[in-house]
Amino acid sequence: MPPGSPVSLDSQATATLRYIRATMEAAGTLPVPGAAGIVMGLIGIGAAVAAATPALAPHWLAVWILAAVLAAAAGAWLLVRQSARQGFTLWGAPLRKLLLCLVPGIAAGALLTVALTRAGADSLLPPVWLLLYGSALISVAATTRRLIGLMGALFVLLALLAYLLPPPAPALALVTGFGGLHLAFGILLRRPSRARQT
Fold this sequence. Notes:
- The protein has one domain (29-192).
- It is 77% helix and 0% strand.
- The protein has 8 helices and no strands.
- α4 packs antiparallel against α5, α5 (125-140) runs antiparallel to α6 (146-164) and α6 runs antiparallel to α7.
- The longest helix is centred in the middle third of the chain and has 26 residues, at 60-85.
- The relative contact order is 0.15.
- Residues 193-198 have low confidence and may be disordered.
């Protein structure tokens, strides 16, 4: 712009508001909807019930993988919907940070699932899934709420129990983690008083 040319007040205000919004978004924490935890928990409980039935017990791995895909899709949709309501853009800084924290652990879990299945070590899958998911949640807590980090730590503890204890401990750890913990923390995240504290 040439020196001395007038600058409209509207353009200055718009630029200032854009800067403030971008700064707040970059520094802000991502709101995690409690509904996502509840839905994911219900899917986890459904998977555990289905995998325990005699007809589907031989296909427990396929049942849990399908449940993981459904839970991830439902959780992502609810997260994006709530974030949009609160003014976060789809590829804004908080969502990018969340993906950077969560995706490596999920990708490692998928790769190890293939490797362990091919090696005939299916019994190691429950502790591996719980450990990697819990570790990812602990990382995600840096961009969301401390409560998510606590949930991640409990997943890691369940992974240890699933590894050390004999069957049916691994199956119980899966339903406790992906079903019970998601459901319980989803309910906690929906409580307004708790949300303000975490």
